[in-house]
Amino acid sequence: MENPVYVVAVRALCEFAAKVGDLDHRFTPGPSAAEGVAGHAAVAMRRGPNAENEVSLSGEHGPLRVRGRADGYDPDRQRLEEVKTYRGDLAAMPANHRALHWAQAKVYGALLCRERKLERLTVALVYHDVGTLHDTVMSEKHSAADLDAFFVGLCERFMAWARQELVHRTARDAALTALAFPHGDFRPGQRQLAEAVYKAAGAGRCLAAQAPTGIGKTLGTVFPMLKACPTQRLDKVFFLAAKTPGRGLALEALHTVVKSEGGQPLRVLELAARDKTCEHPGKACHGDSCPLARGFYDRLPEARSAAVAAGFLDRATLRTVAATHGVCPYYLGQEMVRWADVVVGDYNYFFDLAAMLHGLTLANGWRVGLLVDEAHNLLERARKMYSATLAQVQLDAARRIAPEPLKKPLERLHRAWVQLNGECPSAFEVFDELPQRWFGALANAIDAMASFLGDHPDQVPPDLLRFYFDLLHFARVSDRFGTHSQFDITVEEHGHRKRSVLCLRNVVPAPFLRQRFDAAHTTTLFSATLSPRAFYGDTLGLPTDTRWIDVDSPFTRDQLAVHVTPHISTRHADRPASVAPIAELIARQYRERPGNYLAFFSSFEYLNQVMARLQADAPDLPVWAQSRAMDEGARADFLARFVPQGRGIGFAVLGGAFAEGVDLPGDRLIGAFIATLGLPQVNPVNETLRERLEASFGDGYAYAYLYPGLQKVVQAAGRVIRTPADQGVVHLIDDRFTRRQVRELLPGWWPVARPVRSRPPPEPVQEDPA
């Protein structure tokens, strides 16, 4: 027998070798994680006194080592159980789902018989309905020989693929060991960053790297993480980006690596959202509706082999492979995660509550290296991931279109909601505890809708289905409610009726993110703005042994002129008086040095006011502006006007699409005007956030307002100097930029001009920050 050197999880083996037929998601979504845990616990309590739970098993065949964890084994009855929790009608479960469950149960049975020298075994599937708490048990009696033959048959089907993967892994690791930096030499600061990433991977630690824009952070992190793969036995590298431009830069860097030295045996996969990859919008993901779902698993083996042969699977290549073999590109991408070396995708693929990459990492025991791009965005993105919102007007619409069997549970939810509104003395209320009556009505509505969906999958209007998914998400977030979150209600007048919006609002995502960092062997978070350290460490839940570095800037003070305007206030009350002075400042700077500039403002309204005044005072100056809800084409047109030796002023909103992730080197951009501190608006929600952060960390104003605002300012200003040859100017327009507490949050290499007064006035820092 060959040495077992290829490790595969039981579920992965069964999905590869035993899954056939249609792609079918009519029986999903399933229970929440909390419901699943509770369901498994309920089943475990019904087993005999000598029963074992969560039984670790492994076995070998040829080069394979198969491992997993069986849900339960009762030695008194010689019965092994595979437990599946579900909602709805069990009869509606697709046949290939059931076949996969039997395959998993029988493989666990074979492994148990081998380990404990059993001659016979009862294998049982236990389906636990989380709504009714009822168990449906299906059992089969097998000889150990029959179970072993089944196990060997699956392994034999997987064997050729496993040998191919072993050859690939050996070649990949050898190539990465010999890999040289593709540009010959590092940029200033880039080597320091790369060395820190490599050392953190070697120590299995987390690294938080603050590195200036323009040094090549993407390649400076990708290259050392790839170099660490052979020495640290990393199975995967996940490059996680906040926005589309970040994914593009990562793919560009990886393409450079793959093409270096005549080509590298590296498999790269780009993941994109379903709505951007779906070939048949409006069709459901099952064989009766979508032609790409029909027979998906029958065509998957050839598509999978073609995708592996392609190697570099960006979105376009993946779509071509999928089209050639008649399969869904979105689900082909999900399949290829298992066989890729590097996966590039959005934050949500690893950090979301139901994140696919995180789930696969745990299920398969992968050693993973995480690269988190523009990590200053992770705080707000994570807060949204672990929050949920539900509007009462959604329920109103659902009640109007609901089939008759669903009207009663939705009416009950409506009555509970009306009562909840009556408990709100003001327009915004925060509750210390979850309202149990309302959540009881929510659970009842979910169970009723799940049951109806199971019986009548094609009789649910799309809007009602979307509402069902929103209810499920709200319930799942409520399962994780704790001190890191709050439950609040915003009541609004709709005609003569009160209608409210309920929010399970995450305040500190640290407890959730900490679990994700723990799942990775090493994590590097990098950004131009990761200070103060305590702020990001506290809110993101970084490990206590995280290594922090400030990468030396390759830029010099004489490259950037920074001007502060102590005589202009951009506070909300002062904005009307600030419009003319700001327009005059922009015109004066442009006349002194014509070229391309960006002007950033706190809102579209403010932006339009200043642009209109500038056009009236200086009609000869070319201007263009960001607008609300720009699509990708409009954003590209906006940036296309920043040509070399061009002239004009682009007006944009701070924190928007053009305030970060935009690379305009040389004279494509020679200056920026920032007419705001970027502080979040003062409103009941943010004031509650400030109070909660004050209680947790001691400086609620800085954590809720100042630090997030200045991070946006630094990011926007970072668009100006991108290379050591660039020259530019930044105007910081607000009197509060003169304060020491604010100036200390600006990059150390900036030559921040002193204001007219040598000292800022002794104003209290914690004032109305609007």
From TrEMBL:
- Give the keywords, sorted: 4Fe-4S, ATP-binding, DNA damage, DNA repair, DNA-binding, Helicase, Hydrolase, Iron, Iron-sulfur, Isomerase, Metal-binding, Nucleotide-binding
Write down the PROSITE patterns for this protein, in alphabetical order.
Answer: HELICASE_ATP_BIND_2 (PS51193)
Tell me where on the tree of life, at the top rank, the source sits.
Bacteria
Q: Which GO terms describe its biological process?
A: DNA repair
Q: Which InterPro entries match?
A: ATP-dep_Helicase_C, DinG/Rad3-like, Helic_SF1/SF2_ATP-bd_DinG/Rad3, Helicase-like_DEXD_c2, P-loop_NTPase, RAD3-like_helicase_DEAD
Gene3D superfamilies cross-referenced by the UniProt entry: P-loop containing nucleotide triphosphate hydrolases
A single Gene Ontology MF term assigned here is:
ATP binding
SMART domains this protein is in?
DEXDc2, HELICc2
- Family named by the database record: Belongs to the helicase family. DinG subfamily.
How is this protein named in the record? Answer: ATP-dependent DNA helicase
